[in-house]
Amino acid sequence: MDAIQFAGAMAREVVAQAVVSRGPGGDPAPSGTGARAARTAPPTRRQPRRRGIDSMEVGSMPLTGEYEPSTEKVVRDQVELYESSGGTEGTTLGSLIGPDDPERAGLPVVILTTIGAKSGRIRKTPLMRVEHDGSYAVVASKGGAPQHPVWYHNVVADPRVELQDGPVRQDMLAREVTGEEKTRWWARAVEAYPDYAEYQKNTDREIPVFVLEPAPQEH
Predict the structure, then answer these.
(1) What is d(CA 152, CA 198) in angstroms, rounded to the nearest whole number?
(2) For the segment 43-54, what is each residue's pLDDT rounded down to a tens digit?
(3) pTM of this structure
(4) Structural domains in the chain?
(5) Measuring CA to CA, which residue among 174, 179, 185 is closest to residue 115?
(6) Phi/psi zone of residue 58: left (φ > 0), alpha (ψ -120 to 50 degrees), beta?
(7) What mean pLDDT, rounded, does the chain reach?
(8) Is the pLDDT of residue 157 over 60?
């Protein structure tokens, strides 16, 4: 998710989905055990999710694997706050960039969980919230950088993801959209976070958009 200059850079880097390490291809290098989630997550299975009115669940396609926190402290801390509070704290862009940009500080953020394309470990990334009729979009902008964010490669390798939007955690399936469908979702994304339009102007690559839809229930 350096005063104004640092906040702006972090917003572009973190919120535009470059929040994990810049390693090529799949996923970043291990970051150690600094975060509480890293210390408590079991080695072969994700921690049991909190149940109750403050943390609802939809779907039944749980991701498994060892959680590897981001190497970016601001990202690692927001993910921990977001999840440990049951989705009641750390849910806006202000948790990443601070209060110095009030116009953007209140914009909502979701947590995307993916499986590392190379390591197979669980990765978590705060992204801007783009929702329509129960489906979500995630935009692989990386602040207009010339290369895709790391999480993009994770989703391409395994479209099974989890999304937490406030207190609601859902197992989702991701698919990259093109053509008219992408045009519609791009408009929604820019409405939610206008900086996306500027990011596209700043890069020669076409910024990918994935639509996330609830995974089918397993019986």
Answers:
(1) 20
(2) 333 333 333 323
(3) 0.74
(4) 3-26+67-214 (2.30.110.10)
(5) 174
(6) beta
(7) 79
(8) yes
